[in-house]
Amino acid sequence: MPDDREASTPVPANGATPHDPIAVRRHSSVESLAEHAVRSTPWVRLEAAVASARGQRRRTNEDWHSPLGGRLPLFVVADGVGGGAMAARASRELVAQVHAALEHRRIDAEAIRGALLDADREVGRSIAHHTQASGAATVALCAGLGRSLERWLIGWVGDCRVYRIGVAFDASAELLTVDDTYRALREVPPPGGSSDDPARMVGNGAVLDPNVKAIALGRGEMLALCSDGVHKHVGPEELARVLRGSAPLARRCWRVVALARARGSTDDATVLVVHRARRPPLFASVALGLLAFAGAIAALAAALMVMQ
Known about the structure:
Distance between the termini: 42 Å
Order of helices and strands: EEEEEEHHEEEEHEEHHHEH
CATH class of the largest domain: Alpha Beta
Helix content: 25-40%
Oligomer: single chain
CATH superfamily of the largest domain: PPM-type phosphatase domain
């Protein structure tokens, strides 16, 4: 699909840019970064942004996410489970494995399931080369289909979530996923565990049938991929309210993470947002105008031939 991608741009966690004097104080123990990219085609303008912050008790951020400037509209958020370097390794390798599996093939539901199952094996094998300790990750992803990106596939394992934010000003975010927790699956957690812990993760061999769902995304609507460091502390009403704001999308993402922190989140926190623009960019209108003009010329030429 031909496109005109703007470079993925890192933005300071406080949302400020060299031309933006606004500054927000950040906690000295939290390493944070927001990122932004735009994909424009004659059919659609897709804006993506992400903000991620290391938990206050972590040495490294165990969340990971897709680079935003990729060739395909494919976006992944992974949350390492188990603590330490192996959790961080699991989330990074999971994202890399999914992209490697899907970048050069037709994306459909079976391709996504296969990519997640392959990642489960490869992440487990990689961690086993380094330690006998466990390491795994939960994940949520979305992939746009077709030229207009009206159709999307979402996939998930564990308790990372995907929300859809509509254009109605007062509507809350719509949860599109169902957490793979012991409670939801009606399974007994291990000793010392909670019924609300994820029962399915990528990397420990427990994934049998990854969740995949087809959804529609209208113009002006957004998809938000969240790790549990965000969604356990920011409700769907607040999520929609912040993301519908007028600030640049990267700054809105950071405000979601900051709100989670203000509500008591000490875990790694990541939110990745994809916005399908309400209107096509200017050059799309020009392209449509040129097509209409060409059609008119062809019709005129046909009429002249008939007259002759």
